[in-house]
Every structure is written in C-alpha cells, then in structure tokens.
Amino acid sequence: MNNLIKALLVAFSIGSATAIRCYQCSSQTDPIGSDNCGAYKAFNTTQNIAIECNSEESHMPGSFCMKVVQQSPRGFIWDGRWRQVIRQCASVSETGVTGVCNWGVYENGVYWEECYCVDDECNDAPKTVPVRLFVLCLVFLQTFFVAKILS
C-alpha cells in the first residue's frame, strides 16, 4: 500500500509539471518594413503566440524566458539608431539568476540588455521602465566623461 501511494504521488507530480511558455521572435528575421518582435514599437502579444520551451517549435529548449535588446548610439548608421530584439526560451543565464536584467555597452558603443524570467509569457515587455531610464542616464554620463578625458 505504501509503495502504491508513492507511485501515485510521483505520477501526479510528473503529469502536472508543464513546460514554461515564452514568446519566440527576432527582429533579424522580421520581413522588411515590419516590426513583429517589438524593436521599434510596442510588442503585440495578440500577434505573437507563446510556445512551450520544450516543444519542437522552440529554437532553444529551456526552463525560463529571455529577452535580448541591442541598440546603437545615435548616428551609428546613416539613418539614426537601429534596434534589435530577440525573445526566446533559455536554459542558461549568464549570471545564474532569473528575474533580473543585465546590461552594458560594447566597445563600439552598442548598448545591450538581457532579461531572464521564469513566468509564462514574461518576455513580452519591459517591467521596469524607470530602471531603463536610469541605465540610459548612466550610459550618457559614461560617454560624456570618456569624451572629456580624451579631449
């Protein structure tokens, strides 16, 4: 009887565990003239369907979601700034922590931000707008002080 109860508990716990669902898109694969992944305008959750991370549809299997944003400094290319957004499942976080965003600036001035989260469909939009403004201020100050030191 004791073994039967243990077997039932294991069976129910395995059956109830479902994969996380994340949005999966990339602005690199958007057709010309469209912004399906939300690089320049708000991400449309009704236009995009979240997929299960451990299904065949997933480009990368995983247990949480990630969103990567890269943006050039103004004047980087002839028509101003470019932005790139990638939303997908992830299996490994750079920091080993989810629920946070990591950011930085490459040597060529391109700003990058990677966000990891563990809730279904959590890679749809930024949750911390004031932090993004703070980050942009820090990037501006860093650029200003580097230019002042070099001149």
Topology:
Elements: H1 2-16, E1 21-22, E2 25-26, E3 51-52, E4 64-71, E5 83-90, E6 100-105, E7 111-117, H2 129-150
Antiparallel strand pairs: 1-3, 2-5, 4-5, 4-7, 6-7
Describe the structure.
With 151 residues, the chain is an alpha+beta fold. Helices cover 25% and strands 23% of the residues. The chain is globular, with a radius of gyration of 20 Å. The termini are far apart. Its main location: membrane. One of its GO terms (biological process) is sleep. Residues 1-19 form the signal peptide. Keywords: Glycoprotein, GPI-anchor, Lipoprotein, Membrane, Signal, Transmembrane, Transmembrane helix.
Q: Concise description?
A:
With 151 residues, the chain is of the alpha+beta class. It contains 2 helices and 7 strands; from the N terminus they run H-E-E-E-E-E-E-E-H. The chain has a 5-stranded antiparallel sheet, with no helix packed on it. It has a two-stranded antiparallel ribbon with strand order 1-3.
